[in-house]
Write a sequence for this structure.
């Protein structure tokens, strides 16, 4: 059957099937996308990377070249080196990943997939084990102080703390203002050296759960990716990594790190593990969906239905408090 | 056939060429992470920054380390913020603090001209006089100097920027401001510590440096 006579859905499925069997092209394109969207926004990185992405879109073979990834790794490495004081850890990971792609494309095609699988597995294991090691070595993490503090003041965790920790609305903003008072409030004659935060007293259980769940899942993933390749180990580690991403990035919406982990997960899958590859791609999209401001949208809709604008205007006209006046 | 197959074989899994390509990125990760561990233990670098994957492990993140900057004047201390051109140095100091960095930053701040927003103080003086003299606002020039002084460096709420800022290099941007006379600059590095039981956050000063005013460099 001619390709042109195939229904579009079938064609798309076959194309996806092809991409899943030979994933390096897809990984390279996803990486270019991530570099443009989640890479550093500094002009000396962003301008060349956008230009390179445009070239890559026009000439697909460009993303299969060693030079392309060498240049990308050099650019992001330079940004990280020059801005070390603010560079997040996933920027380092993106740099290592570009280097891994550079090395993979410098090998003959038949060994590339095997090479990138091994590298991805090692990168995943190392970043998880290091993350657990830091947590295990830090007393204020183990005694729950870190998550207790974070849930009370970090805006990224606010919705989660409100839903699962019964934190009343506005408490995070109030706590942040108190911290602000310590940091940059200057009151003549008054030396503010400590403030007491509010958590409405219902977060102990949640803090304990988050502390130990994070250690457990990250440690497990780190260990499983170090173990030799067995069927059950392979399944368990992929399941754990997907579970980690779907739960963690729903709470802490760190898109760049989530995307990077999903790409590493996708890259270390074997040729026949199409299900896991699709799941990693799905979670890659999910990480972005998590970052949408659902609560704000729901609140806006609720407010709208409670009192639509036309009603508000009518009420204010009747009561003589029309906002324009 | 043999000639084209031979180069491929040097990259076969198990060979040196294969392993050095596969292990290069993980080796870089280990190297940077090792350096980070060293810097955290020896140079007090924050575990959050530096490529060691210590994020979300401690309260001691870079935002929990902050600077307080004061201009020392004859009328007292004026809390100010560092200008944007020193923000990178300030961030470096907070991420991995040491005395040399603090000295350098204080020296740079002491070499700046600082200016006060006249319009801001006019507004403050006007509000002050509205409160004092009923509903009739009066201009700043009619306000007695002691009254201005009394409101000049009054409380600043969190998040509010200081009305005293570093003068711009482009002198045309300094119109509408008056120069602030100061004799020294003090920068303090503070850290937040959290006590979970009491739910209390303490600010502790860990470093401090004072430098006399130097002539602004062109």
């Amino acid at each position: 059957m001619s390709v042109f006579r195939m229904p579009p859905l079938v064609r798309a499925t076959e194309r996806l099937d092809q991409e899943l069997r030979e994933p390096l092209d897809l990984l390279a394109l996803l990486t270019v996308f991530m570099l443009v969207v989640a890479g550093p926004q500094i002009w000396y990185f962003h301008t060349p990377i956008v230009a390179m992405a445009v070239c890559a879109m026009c000439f697909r073979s460009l993303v299969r070249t060693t030079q392309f990834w060498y240049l990308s790794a050099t650019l992001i490495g330079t940004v990280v080196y020059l801005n070390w004081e603010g560079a997040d850890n996933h920027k380092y990971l993106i740099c290592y990943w570009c280097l891994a792609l550079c090395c993979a494309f410098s090998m003959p095609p038949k060994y590339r997939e095997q090479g990138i699988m091994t590298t991805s597995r090692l990168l995943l294991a190392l970043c998880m084990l290091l993350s657990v090691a830091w947590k295990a070595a830090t007393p204020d993490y183990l005694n729950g102080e870190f998550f207790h503090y974070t849930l009370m003041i970090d805006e990224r965790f606010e919705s989660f703390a409100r839903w699962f920790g019964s934190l009343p609305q506005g408490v995070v903003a109030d706590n942040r203002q108190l911290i602000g008072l310590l940091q940059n409030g200057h009151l003549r004659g008054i030396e503010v050296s400590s403030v007491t935060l509010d958590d409405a007293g219902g977060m102990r259980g949640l803090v304990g759960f988050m502390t130990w769940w994070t250690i457990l899942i990250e440690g497990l993933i780190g260990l499983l990716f170090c173990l030799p390749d067995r069927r059950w180990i392979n399944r368990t580690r992929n399941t754990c990594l997907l579970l980690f991403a779907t739960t963690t990035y729903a709470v802490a919406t760190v898109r760049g790190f989530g995307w990077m982990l999903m790409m590493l997960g996708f890259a270390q899958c074997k040729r026949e593990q199409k299900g896991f590859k699709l799941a990693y791609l799905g979670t890659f999209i999910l990480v972005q969906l998590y970052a949408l401001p659902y609560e704000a949208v729901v609140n806006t809709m609720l407010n709208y239905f409670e009192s639509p604008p036309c009603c508000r205007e009518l009420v204010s006209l009747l009561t003589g408090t029309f906002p324009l006046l | 056939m043999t000639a084209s197959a031979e180069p491929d074989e040097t990259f076969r899994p198990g060979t040196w060429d294969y392993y050095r390509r596969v292990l290069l990125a993980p080796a870089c990760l280990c190297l940077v992470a090792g350096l980070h561990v060293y810097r955290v233990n020896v140079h007090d670098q924050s575990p959050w920054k530096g490529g060691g994957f210590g994020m979300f492990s401690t309260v001691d993140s870079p935002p929990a380390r902050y600077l307080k900057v004061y201009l020392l004047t004859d009328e007292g201390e004026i809390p100010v913020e560092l200008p944007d051109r020193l923000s990178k140095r300030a961030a470096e100091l907070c991420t991995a603090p040491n005395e040399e960095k603090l000295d350098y930053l204080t020296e740079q701040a002491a070499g700046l001209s600082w200016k006060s927003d006249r319009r801001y103080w006019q507004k403050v003086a006007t509000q002050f006089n509205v409160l004092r003299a009923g509903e009739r606002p009066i201009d700043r020039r009619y306000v007695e100097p002691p009254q201005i002084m009394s409101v000049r460096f009054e409380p600043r709420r969190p998040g509010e920027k200081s009305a005293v800022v570093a003068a711009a290099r482009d002198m045309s941007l300094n119109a509408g401001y008056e120069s602030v006379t100061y004799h020294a600059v003090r920068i303090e590095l503070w850290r937040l510590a959290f006590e979970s039981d009491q739910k209390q956050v303490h600010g502790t000063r860990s470093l401090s440096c004072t430098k006399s005013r130097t002539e602004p460099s062109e």
The longest strand of chain B covers residues 200-212.
